[in-house]
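USER:
Try writing one entry.

ASSISTANT:
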Amino acid sequence: MLLLAGFALKAQCTSPEGWDGRQYGRLCYNDIQALYDGREIDRDVFPYVHGELRTDPETSLVGGAIEYPVLTGIFMWATGLLVNDFNDYLRVSALLLAPFALATAALLARMTARRALMWAAAPALALYAFHNWDLLAVCAAVVAIWMWWRDRHVAAAVAIGVGAVLKLYPLLLLAPLVLYVLSRSGLRRASRVAGAGVGTMVAFNLPFALINFDGWWATYEFHSNRTGNYDSIWTLGWPSLSAETLNLITLGLTAAFCLGALAWGWWKREGSIYPFLPVAGALVAAFLLWNKVHSPQYTLWILPFFVLLRVRVGWWIAYSLVDLAVYVGVFRWFYEYLYESKDFTFFKKLMIAGVWGRAVVLLALYVVFLRARPALERFLSQPPDNVGGVGDRLSAQARSS
């Protein structure tokens, strides 16, 4: 139902008039339509191989360069071959993305039963399912966790590698996965897992880098040149920071928090087994907290961890509320600023409150996730395919605690 609601929300932006302000006023803005001609998808330009980043007179991606990794770019291009205008591009993209949301829900339900409703019934699913292409990467990340649960660690690393070639964030799961395997099976096995994840990334990226390095690298150079976006603590709190300074600060803070979580997990491992899921959730929370660009749909990244970890539902509600405040505040303020020449309105204040509220909740979730136990016990007496996997070990821990 929420997918239908999400499509109904975004479908308000389908009109023969094109861009007319309703995108902000009706809260139906989506990157899918905005980038249809903005990234030359309307011209069927194959991504990356002829692309480049131009900086004069302003920074722009041209010739098929795209700000997303290669598999997302190919998905965008291939979908564009099926349509002739940006309205149909949204419709067909939604049709192709919906199965990834359903697959994510099915895997979460298989691992956690009713807790999967915190994915399937999340307001964010309606807001962001068809906002961008993040459902592809989220599904890959959940597949990786599913594979970990089934004790198929190399396959989990491959899924992480695939996810990182859709959006980079699933790569955050690789380090805790490797440490989990190291704690359980030793260095040789852990090296194989690390190699599978990195090798998958290289296999997808290398052809594009060899054909046109500049077109492939433009994705990452584009982001390095960006400053914080509107709904960022950095723009609100320190708007004068240059891109170079902001890169150093955000990279340093993210690295410190990630290393801290990884070290904490090693110190707190139970029965010598590394806490993969709590650390993975904390890494995603840290990345969202400190990243200079916090696009609205990034909320989808963290949602599965509310399902997979035993955290109080109040945290899910709190995050949903501050996220909704940011979403409504940002786009309604855009409309007032651009079409009514108003600035410091109620909706801008709502956005500001939501941004800082979201930062506080993410900082708390970093700690909450690290201290949480996996929410997989329901299925542990019947591990999938009788593999005697992580389910049995967690079940034993739960009974003894």
